[in-house]
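Project outcomes to date are best conveyed with an example. Our students and postdoctoral researchers have been running inverse folding experiments weekly, and each run begins with a structure described purely in tokens. The record below, which covers 380 residues, was selected by the lab manager from last quarter's runs and is presented without edits.
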């Protein structure tokens, strides 16, 4: 049986322990100590990492009364153990932040927490009901006020009769060895994980994403140091965009909306000009009994396609419209009475080409000179 130091004090980052057993399994060693501050994976939270002696702990699992550390070296005797406490502390901040949010969402709107994941990059929690943006903002605001109140957080294992008299949130209906995390004035919840001592240590809580999830709501949150780093990164992005656009940060949304509207208008005008150019070029061609090859440096895809369609009316053979320069041409070809899909294979082979399509229209690129292309197409 491993003594769980993280229940005595969640701030223990270094300790000495006796190695009770160390067995090789695949390329890792399964180490059981007489006591440990390494929190195992469980309840949605990933395991602690750190060192046992000079063995690196990569995973920790609870099995019955034992806590098994998976490490990269064989260890025996009395060992000095050290947690990666920076990583653990971020988890403590996030976990307490989640309890605050869930406690408040439950009290204000009756939301039940039905899922929780606390990984290295992401913290998510799921509620059984859909909450509106305004409701979520209210929960977030109340949770931050609870942080400023710097309320005490107490963990304890109530006796069964005491437990019965308590009103607390719980995912499982356990009767024995239930550990209660009480955030005074805000929440009471059954939980096995390490928490900070006072809400002030959570620093801040921010919802960074919310979505509908199985008929309820999934939230992504950041707390504490992680929340601050996220804020710094987001702020730098906003500042950079505001600089690039020469727009005030507070008006950025309206500015970008207007910018996108203008861009769409320009795109439309450009498309119209492209089609108009194609129509003008088409008027310069007479009817012919040969294939037509045209090169133009300005046409875009829509214009090229339009020109192919217009010129098909001037020949019974094929039309090839090109843009680009020798060695790097883009083409669109069209014909009404030719098996273009098959022909393009030979043409591609001759002209270092790529691309395909159907019998009416093919498109792609030729890595050849204009003279070579013209000669090949006109010989079809
Ligand atoms: Zn919890």
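After processing, the design step wrote out the following sequence:
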């Amino acid at each position: 049986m491993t003594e769980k130091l993280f229940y005595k004090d969640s701030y223990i980052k270094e300790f000495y322990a006796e190695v009770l057993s160390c067995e090789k399994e695949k390329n890792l060693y399964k180490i059981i100590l007489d006591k440990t501050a390494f929190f195992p994976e469980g309840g949605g939270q990933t395991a602690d990492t750190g060192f046992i002696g000079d063995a690196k702990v990569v995973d920790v699992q609870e099995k019955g009364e034992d806590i098994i550390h998976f490490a990269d070296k064989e260890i025996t005797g009395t060992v000095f153990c050290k947690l990666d406490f920076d990583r653990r502390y971020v988890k403590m901040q996030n976990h307490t932040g989640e309890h605050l949010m869930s406690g408040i969402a439950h009290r204000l709107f009756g939301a039940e927490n039905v899922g929780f994941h606390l990984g290295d990059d992401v913290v998510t929690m799921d509620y059984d009901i859909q909450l509106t943006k305004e409701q979520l903002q209210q929960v977030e605001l109340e949770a931050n006020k609870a942080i400023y109140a710097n309320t005490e957080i107490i963990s304890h294992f109530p006796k069964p009769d005491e437990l019965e008299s308590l009103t607390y949130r719980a995912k499982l209906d356990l009767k024995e060895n239930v550990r209660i995390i009480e955030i005074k004035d805000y929440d009471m919840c059954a939980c096995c994980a390490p928490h900070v001592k006072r809400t002030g240590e959570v620093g801040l809580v921010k919802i960074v994403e919310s979505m509908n999830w199985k008929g309820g709501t999934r939230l992504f949150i950041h707390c504490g140091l992680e929340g601050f780093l996220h804020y710094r990164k987001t702020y730098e992005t906003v500042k950079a965009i505001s600089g690039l656009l020469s727009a005030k940060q507070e008006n950025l949304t309206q500015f970008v909306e207007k910018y996108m509207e203008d861009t769409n208008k320009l795109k439309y005008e450009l498309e119209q000009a492209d089609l108009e150019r194609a129509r003008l070029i088409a008027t310069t061609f007479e009817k012919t009994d040969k294939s037509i090859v045209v090169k133009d440096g300005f046409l875009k895809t829509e214009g090229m396609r339009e020109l192919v369609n217009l010129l098909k009316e001037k020949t019974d053979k094929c039309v090839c419209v090109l843009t680009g320069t020798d060695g790097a041409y883009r083409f669109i070809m069209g014909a009404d009475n030719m098996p273009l899909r098959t022909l393009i294979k030979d043409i591609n082979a001759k002209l270092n080409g790529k691309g395909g399509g159907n019998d009416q229209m093919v498109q792609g690129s030729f890595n050849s000179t204009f003279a070579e292309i013209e000669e090949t197409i006109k010989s079809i």
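The chain is about 35% helix and 30% strand. The domain at 88-235 is CATH 3.30.980.10 (Threonyl-tRNA Synthetase; Chain A, domain 2). The training component of this project remains on track.
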